[in-house]
Amino acid sequence: MHASQPTCNVRLVEVVKRYRLRRGYKTVLNEVTFEFPRGYRIAILGLNGAGKSTLIRLIAGSEEPTSGRIERYSNISWPLGVSGGHAGSMTGKENVRFVARLYGRDVQEVEDYVRAFADIGEHYFMPMRTYSSGMRARLAFGLSMAIDFDCYLVDEILAVGDAVFRKRCEEVFSAKLERADMIMVAHSPALLRKYCNAAAILRNGRLEFFDDLEAGIAAYNRLIKEQQDRTWMPS
Questions:
Q1: How far is Cα 29 from Cα 14, in angstroms, rounded to an integer?
Q2: Model confidence at 72: pLDDT above 50
């Protein structure tokens, strides 16, 4: 008898994430138990400072929770839009080959794809610390697209390079999402509506899921208005 397949990509179980400040603590997640279901491309919404990027890093495993646990049931990407994980002293080629081996992919196949996609010429053989931010973004995005994932994590990207390169990125990424899920931090309503079909709002250390994107955006807009009403002071 086969075990039933998990219905979620990631499960947070009583997760607390707290940062020490000069005075006291900031709590980003407060004993959160939450499932990111399969079959959705989820927009993470929340006010500035709510901890959306922190949540993405926790799901990716690049940060650890203060307490609780995070269970991953799918092959989940690193956060697209974050290229700081590459070793600056290593060449682009060395970084690409290292990541391909780390994920158990055919090294030459991944390398051929990234070189063609990033199109950074001989810089590919130079240390990444010598790259411009644009070249780092091109190589990082190409590497993200060279490896297939069940669920992509996205932190405010898809706007790298010139118009031609951005169009290529959008086409390739859209094709990936035809057979993969996504968890995305973004503020642009146009970007959310283009890529997402559900939402989760992070507020006061809690997550609320909306399986309808428009309902999630409407709730987020109400949250923004509440904040504006609280902070508005008559002259």
A1: 9
A2: yes
The pLDDT tens digits of the residues spanning 184-215 come to: 998 788 888 989 999 999 999 999 999 999 99
Confidence of residue 233 (pLDDT cuts 50, 70, 90): low
Check if the beta carbon of residue 43 is closer than 8 Å to that of residue 196. yes
**215-230, pLDDT tens digit by residue?**
999 999 999 988 888 7
Give bridge partners of residue 17 from the DSSP assignment.
Answer: 29
Tokens 């035809």 correspond to: 178
Please tell me the predicted confidence (pLDDT) of residue 91.
95
Return phi, psi of residue 126, to 5°.
Answer: -110, 155
CA distances, 167 to each of 3, 95, 163 (Å): 42, 25, 6
The answer to whether 91 and 99 are in contact (CB under 8 A) is no
pLDDT of residue 1: 45
Strand partners for 70: 12
Residue with token string 């790298």: 160
Alpha-carbon distances, residue 211 vs 37, 72, 93, 216, 225 (angstroms): 10, 20, 41, 8, 22
Taking CA atoms, 112 is separated from 44, 165, 181, in Å, by 33, 18, 25
Could you tell me the two tokens for 62? 């690049």
CA distance 31 to 39: 25
Q: Which amino acid is at 64?
A: E
Structure token pair of residue 79: 């956060």
Helix axes 133-146, 92-102, angle to 10 degrees: 30
